[in-house]
Amino acid sequence: MDSAAKASKDAMNRVSDLPQGSGGETQQRDGSGVMTTDHGVPISDNQNTLKAGPRGPALLEDFVLREKIFHFDHERIPERIVHARGSGAHGTFTVTRAIPELTRAALFQEEGNSCETFTRFSTVAGSKGSKDTPRDVRGFATKFYTQEGNWDLVANNFAPFFIQDAMKFPDLVHAVKPEADRMFPQAASAHDTFWDFVGLMPETLHTVMWLMSDRALPRSFRMMEGFGVHTFRMVNADGDVSFVKFHWKPRLGMQSLLWDEAVKVSGADPDFNRRDLWEAIDRGEFPEYDLGIQVFDSEFADSQFYDVLDATKLIPEEDVPVQIIGTLQLNRNPDNFFAETEQVAFMPQNVPPGIDFTDDPLLQGRLFSYLDTQKSRLGTANFFQIPINAPRCPFANMQRDGMMQTLIHKGRSNYEPNSLDRAGEDPGPRPSDQGFQTIRRMDQREDANQKLRVRADKFADHFSHARLFYVSQTEVEQDHIAAAFTFELSKVDLPHVRINVLAQLRNIDEALAQRVAKGLDLDLPERAPAASETVEMQPSDALSILKNALETLKGRKIGVLVDDDSDQDEIDTLTSAIEAEGGTAALIAPRRGLRDGQLDGTPSVLVDAIALVLTEAAAEKLCKHKPAIDFVSDAFAHCKAIGHSDGAKPLLEKAGVSTDEGVVSLSDLPEAAKQRYFSREQKIWAAQS
Ligand code: HDE
Question: Positions of the region Disordered (predicted)?
């Protein structure tokens, strides 16, 4: 190695010599256990203010108190403008299929390559302290610490997005957030301003269909898909370019809550999804997701009636199959929520060489917004030095100084080019031929070089994909969508807003519009004018959760209701059978004692199925206890499997449980609990259909 190259490598090593990640190196540095001030002065008393006499006034001199309160006063940072409530986990991504033919990204050159990751799941509309189970989109953002820098795949659990152009994002977010004058409702789209925006902006409707579907109520972050939404590009070492769309597929399959369940969960455990993720990782049940790509070329893109640069559309998986290229495993809970989950800064602009953007006008706006917002949240342009954000590979450039600079750049080389190496000094880093190279634009169209504030013609259709989503659902899922529209619009006070939305719904599905109108006790208005003809697309099974349901106990929790006189052998046999299938059994009892949960505080909405291991005497007693009756009747209404001992029958009767294939003996429960029994909905939720 010549001396200049060595000097440059040394410089890179120096600036990358940050505390890496959060593996413990960034803990307070003193290992002696002595408490000190921020400046290292040992503290002798952490209880009492320095006072003039035992009952005297506090003294300004008390630097220990002043520093403590000063720091406390500044503990909070602004919450994210959207996606404020989140839960994070460290993980590992492993390539299961090399794709050098598609990308030159080093990560994807060989099967078995892997890198560390940090993933943050989030809800969008609610504040940081809101609940986990609103009807909302979920964020699914992953930072891959690759050997060529960080790659941030900042995804959602919906394939399309509400708007086509970044210009509309502030309007969308203002409309869905709590209303400006009254600051409610919190974490809810069921209000005037959101639906006003929807009625006036039909491009939102495809994603609104997803929002009204069960996709908006994931049972667990471990049981939802993720989508990169935009079309990206990949480029290989020869410069060949392909279009790609990114997908995450959960190994546990998809599962959602029912709306009534989600409402009750938000009271019983506002941290339902966060707790579920934390506990699963803690138990060593590491959530896993396969990374898939849809790959296509410009010929395919040009031959579609919709534009692949339009983020309100998706490409049906039946048209372009998803190819799996890797697996993400979430295997470590954060050490510190603030340092990691709160301070992690995702930016779609973070891509390694070999992955590139498209001209999608929504994506282009995001490329600005995420960098900009981090300065506002984290307070300094040096936010990339925070351990959770710092690359795990060497990094070096001529950016210098700024607030909170933690790197000590040595020498004089803070500009490029320089010839300091000729004087034997470290010249610092230089650009490389192997660095990121933007793909040249390929748009040959005549108007490609004009500056225009317009939407491309192919962006005009707003209903074909919305209809595709609806017709691809099972009947049960369609019922849920109709009920969701009815619920949400029933919370809208302005009559013309309800009417506008109904008029738009007629462009998606006449029967759906009629059902919602009936639920709202309104006559169907005139159909809203459509800017383009709706194309009847082939239904896509991939869009339905229920058509793809995985019958498994893995990741599921069974609530086992017991009392003091329950048969311990019966309990043990059942719990071992549940655990053998990968499920978890939670023992719930009227008195907590040694059990996992106390009945009154552990309603059945917190579990996936229930078992009643009760003697007749215990069941009779529980018939007089409202939480016990609700435990059973809610499980039944939420279509969950119910396993029971013979003695439990009085409680079943009291709770209004009628026999069906989901009401079984204790020994049949582990099998029965692998699914829900939606046929009950027709009987129990009559007003819904
Ligand atoms: Fe975001 N989005 N977004 N978004 N987004 C943010 O960045 C924005 C969009 C997504 O866990 C913010 O760091 C604009 C699509 C996730 O930290 C902000 C537009 C998709 C997260 C921002 C979009 C997303 C964010 C707020 C339209 C799915 C949470 C805090 C042009 C592919 C990341 C922050 C985390 C967060 C802007 C649209 C996903 C303000 C301007 C489409 C998962 O920068």
Answer: 1-54, 413-441
Average pLDDT over residues 179-185: 98
Domains and CATH numbers, the chain: 80-385 (2.40.180.10), 551-688 (3.40.50.880)
Catalytic residue among 113, 150, 156, 389: 156
Q: Is the CB of 226 under 6 A from ligand 1?
A: no
Active site residue 83: yes
Identify the weakest region by mean pLDDT among 187-201, 268-282, 446-460, 551-565.
446-460
> What's the mean pLDDT when you consider all of the chain?
94
Model pLDDT, residue 31: 67
194-208 pLDDT tens trace: 999 999 999 999 999
Collapsed DSSP state (helix, strand, coil) of residue 177: coil
Q: Ligand 1 mean position to 538 CA, how many Å?
A: 31
Residues 6+ apart with CB under 8 A from 301: 231, 243, 307, 308
Q: What is the pLDDT of residue 23?
A: 39
Beta strands 355-356 and 323-332 are unpaired
The enclosing H or E element of 619 equals: helix 616-622
21-41 pLDDT, tens digit per residue, is: 443 444 556 567 999 999 999
166 within ligand 1 shell (Cβ under 6 A): yes
Average pLDDT over residues 534-549: 98
Q: Check if the interface score ipTM surpasses 0.85.
A: yes
156 classed as catalytic: yes
Find, among 163, 232, 203, 210, the residue nearest to 540 by Cα: 210
Q: Kindly give the distance from the C-alpha atom of residue 144 to the centroid of ligand 1, in angstroms, as a whole number.
A: 17
Q: How many C-beta atoms surround the C-beta of residue 607 within 10 A? A: 24
**What is the position in ligand 1's atom list of the atom closest to the CA of 365?**
31
C-alpha–C-alpha distance, residues 374 and 344, integer Å:
9
- Cα–Cα distance for residue pair 367/350, rounded to 1 Å: 9
Does residue 231 contact residue 308 with C-beta atoms inside 8 Å? yes
For residues 186 and 169, give the distance between their C-alpha atoms in angstroms, rounded to a whole number.
19
- The DSSP-derived string for 142-157 is EEEEETTEEEEEEEES
Amino acid occupying residue 191? H
Ligand 1 atom at minimal distance to the Cα of residue 363: 31
Q: What is the pLDDT at residue 437?
A: 94
Task: Check the annotation: does 377 bind a ligand.
Answer: yes
Residue 347 CA to ligand 1 centre (angstroms): 8
- Is residue 289 marked as binding? no
Kindly give the number of the ligand 1 atom that is closest to the alpha carbon of 80. Answer: 30
Predicted TM-score (pTM) of this structure: 0.95
CB atoms within 10 A of CB 674: 19
Say how far apart CA 248 and CA 26 lie, in whole Å. 32
